[in-house]
Amino acid sequence: MALRIEDYAIIGDMHTAAVVGADGSIDWLCLPDFDSPSCFARLVGTDSHGYWKIAPAGGPSAVLASRRRYREDSLVLETEFDTATGTVRISDFMPVGVSHPHVMRVVEGIAGTVDLALELTLRFDYGDAVPWVTSSPGLLRMTAGPDAVALWHRVHTVGKNLTTVADFTVSTGQRYPFTLVWHPSNEEPPAPLDTYYALEHTDAIWKEWAGRCTYEGPWRDQVVRSLLTLKALTVETTGGIVAAPTTSLPETLGGGRNWDYRYCWLRDAALTLESLMRGGYLDEALAWRDWLVRSVAGDPARLQIMYGPSGERRLVEWEADWLPGYESSTPVRIGNAASGQFQLDVYGEVLSALHAAAHADGVPNAAAWDLQIKLIEFLASAWIAPDDGIWEVRGPRRHFTHSKVMAWVAVDRAVRTLEQWPDLKGDLEGWRELRARIHADVCEHGFNRDLGAFTQYYGADTLDASVLMIPLVGFLPPDDPRVVSTVEAVEHRLLADGLVLRYETSDAGPVDGLSGREGAFLACSFWLVDCLHLIGRTADAEALFERLVGLSNALGLLAEEYDPVAGRLVGNFPQAFSHVSLVNSAFRLAGADPLTTVAAALGATPAGRRAARAASRRTARSRRSRTKGEGGRSARRRGP
After folding, report:
1. How many helices (H) and strands (E) does the chain have?
2. What is the pLDDT of residues 441-453, one digit of tens each?
3. CATH architecture classification, 5-196
């Protein structure tokens, strides 16, 4: 049975990620990529759908106490179990920069002697395909169709009811390494890596990457953990950024609001890019820009809101009806039909991100600028059309206020780019006129004077948390009375136990076309933090921020939502949008201009960009000199 969402952690190699429970069980893993079919699916299924557990023999009753942590500024996970006879540590990680995805687990005796049990049930194709298993000394091979997984080990394994099991004992100072590696079934399995070296190297390169962070505010630990999580959700080879490594973790326990998040939403990825840039990570910004140009190339009218990690366009949605869902929350969805929706706001997020990336690079990329011109030319007529909105509603299209605001952002950022680099081609005066026209339209039709607030869509009397973005993107200044009254209206109408709901829903027919309630969307609560700070209520903003940080699990990870009724994290996990919003709020509360990147602060020139990178690397070297226990460098393909 799956654990509470907050009882999980992730390890990853920037191609995929494993979800690891506090009980020592890996309950979700897709191989070889984030969006590949899973080989462990207990998270949304049962034991028979795949998991890999290493824990003290005798079950939970044999464990007197347990604790877990990430190594400082690293993605190496350590779990310790105390038993009546001793203490054992399990170090879980995925090496980066290797040719095939590896999941490595090192069991180490810390004190006394501990009896352990290994259980491995591997099922390809989301728990539906039982592999053919062959065994030889030190090697277990599991094959089904095009996929194969090898387990290198040093224990005696046996098969029992289609599960591989092993019992072994670890004493003080003993180490038992286990390496699970995926490979094409027509190839031989890769030789096992040196476990000690792989562990220390993986730890060292994550620490080196984290050491480049330029944030020095009061919540540095939380910011660095969030940035590490965002980096773990980045695809190393393409630059794409997935929204989460999981699918169908429910927004309400037992409900049907369950979606597949293992794809690259342009909105989420653009905001992630800007958060990474604020943290000093400029190379990631340029890699994402290149991914974007490749992925969206073609007709701007057919811009999708999301793509596969490598830019795939067809994300057909279907239901894995053999999986019972997380805590009976069905259906379990694979793919996402929202990829075919029309959402105006993504144009704003994309152009805002490309504007920021131009600062990072010192000059607009020619291909990226050509793309922006095409997008603005499309928006010139498309912005007046109704759309599906930021929340991907499956009800009728409407004139959503946030969508129109973000259409304004798209044009505004294009205007700013032309003003900064006047040699670029573009219709500056025409775009300025278009920007003014959209602005006037939103102010006239999106603001409800009776409510004193910008509403969910034109003519509505319902609220939507997305209108909190109005001052955050520069559409109106924070001291505008309409902004202040909108923030106060959101506090009055959209709070559930002090946290912000996305919008008002009811079983009678909410705008999203779905029934049932959902939890509080954590990103929206961080937006309220930002708005409270901007309108001068910094004490209230900091109090809410502290509460939100406190909703993280013990490892600093956040899901998509928090259910105030159940008192639990809900939704896909960990969620990039939540961690992006945490980073942005921390920067604002620390007094940093949220629209200023390291590169822009040093000058939007190639020399300024080089200075920014040199500064971040000097910071990394300085912090590494204060860090103990790091491994050496590697000749393998680079990691973070």
Report:
1. 16, 26
2. 999 999 999 999 9
3. Distorted Sandwich (2.70)
